Amino acid sequence: MNRRTLLKLTVPLSLSLGVISPCRRLHALETRSAAADVKASGITAFIDRLVPADPLSPGALDLGVQQPILSRMAGNPVYLHIVHKAMDWLDHEALKQGGGDFASLPPKQQDALISRAEGLPREHYVNWAFRRLLADTLQGYYTRQEAWDSLCYRGPPQPLGFPQHAEPHTDCKRP
Predict the structure, then answer these.
(1) Does a structural domain hold residue 133?
(2) How many domains are contained in the chain?
(3) Domain span at residue 76?
(4) Residues 100, 38: contact at Cβ < 8 Å?
């Protein structure tokens, strides 16, 4: 067999494999993307229960805290995998309580499941996901100036220093 004959046989085969393989990968990515959207609603519900809105302050979702967290997960496969497994656990526990999934439960039942996740041993993946989401949520929330008003916090003293450190806060919105 000469070189031309070999190329005639292998090039069409490699082209067909090259075309089929990306199509399969694209379908797998679309399937994963749909699953990620379903998980995102559960993660968003979880974040909403960690820092809910109240009459004096906005909640985490009001400030869009979930977006950077979801973006961070998308760039970190380990974080994404563990949180998705934790959401599977929460959804399974929600089903046991007669709900559809975690996101569809009433807030009190969501809070109870979050408390159970917090109470698991620190080594448990659900507890790890709880602690990581809590830390990321609090960081995203309290770094936003909109969250400071209800705390009567004027913001970081630098670069201005502490010009009014001895004066009471008169611009506080708290009753």
Answers:
(1) yes
(2) 1
(3) 40-50+57-147
(4) no
The rounded distance, in Å, linking the Cα atoms of 162 and 152 is: 15
**Block means of pLDDT (10 residues each) for the chain, length 175 residues?**
56 47 42 54 95 93 96 93 95 89 93 94 94 96 89 73 65 62
Whose structure tokens read 């916090």?
A: 153
How is residue 26 written in tokens? 């694209």
Q: Are 69 and 140 in contact (CB under 8 A)?
A: yes
User: What is the rounded distance in angstroms from the CA atom of residue 31 to the CA atom of residue 36?
Assistant: 9
Q: What is the structure's pLDDT at 23? A: 44
Q: Are 77 and 89 in contact (CB under 8 A)?
A: no
Q: What is the pLDDT of residue 163?
A: 65
Strands (E), 58-174: none
